[in-house]
Amino acid sequence: MKSIQWNLVIPLAGLGVIGFMDAAVSHGAKLTYEVEPTISLTAAYDNGEPFNEAQVFVYSPENPQEPWETGTTDESGRYQFRPNPEIPGNWTVTVRQAGHGDMITINLDDSTLMADDSTGDAANSSLLADLTDISVPQRLLTGASVIWGCVGTALYFSRGHKSSSSDS
To answer: How far apart are CA 66 and CA 101, in angstroms?
Structure first.
């Protein structure tokens, strides 16, 4: 029976695990918008793929529990709506598709649309970013744990079974 060279198998297995982890957690969400008489919203995954035909819920400041308007994004992940300028306050927009989504709050004050984010980039308000963004130390710890489990399992099965024969 040939002996497996573990000094080659373990690093290769580790690289494979760490490589697959990046692809598995890369679906965060990102919303951007343009301020016009109507609000143009664009919903896309972190990799740029649009949220096509995603559900959109717009909530007014008067009733943040019930949607003021609902709809779906187009093939490019775009959605437009025109909030009532006579209703000042924070308008909330939620976009959802297949377990992914994001939420943004837009402040409409004195008939002037102003984003609550001074940069105009809504990516910082991502709800799912905290759940899907894994730091490098977390990735390394996860990869090391998987490798440790694989090595332990391999060593357990490679030690051979002792026969329990009795001399009678």
So the answer is: 18
CA dist 5 and 8 (Å) reads: 6
Q: What single string gives the DSSP state of each residue in 109-151? A: ETTEEEESSTT-BGGGG-SSHHHH---HHHHHHHHHHHHHHHH
Q: Per residue in 38-72, pLDDT tens? A: 888 999 888 888 888 999 999 999 988 999 999 99
Distances (CA, A) of 22 to 26, 135, 160: 6, 10, 36
As a whole number of angstroms, the distance between CA 54 and CA 68 comes to: 17
Q: What single letter denotes the amino acid at residue 105?
A: T
Considering the segment(s) 29-132 as one domain, its CATH architecture is Sandwich (2.60)
Domain boundaries, the chain: 29-132
Q: What is d(CA 98, CA 44) in angstroms, rounded to the nearest whole number?
A: 13
